[in-house]
Amino acid sequence: MLLENTGLNGIRSDLGHLDESGDKLGFVRWQWEYRRATYDLKLHDRTSGQDYYLRIATRAIEGKLENPEAILEVEGVYIGRSTFPHGLDYESAIPEPILNAAKQRAQDLKKLLS
């Protein structure tokens, strides 16, 4: 599910600051290559036992990702249910408490990056 109106789309940050800010909130930079990176935050639903991930997709607009001074721009914010062995189902319904937690964490990240 694409999360709209988070205020993160289009925000620019250098890689070092984005890594540090994301780390403070529990995000991990998992997937990355020279020009793109995703930051994932695991959210566990105790009621169902399911895991969900809030994913922040970024693209380098200046430099490459091995350089902490590279400038990244947020391209999209997604949430999905974890699937075995590794993947995300973006079509599943997201429980309200998980969705609220994801939106709050997205707002927290926006504040750190602003």
TrEMBL record:
<dbReference type="InterPro" id="IPR014967">
    <property type="entry name" value="Uncharacterised_YugN-like"/>
</dbReference>
<dbReference type="Pfam" id="PF08868">
    <property type="entry name" value="YugN"/>
</dbReference>
<protein>
    <submittedName>
        <fullName>YugN-like protein</fullName>
    </submittedName>
</protein>
<dbReference type="InterPro" id="IPR036491">
    <property type="entry name" value="YugN-like_sf"/>
</dbReference>
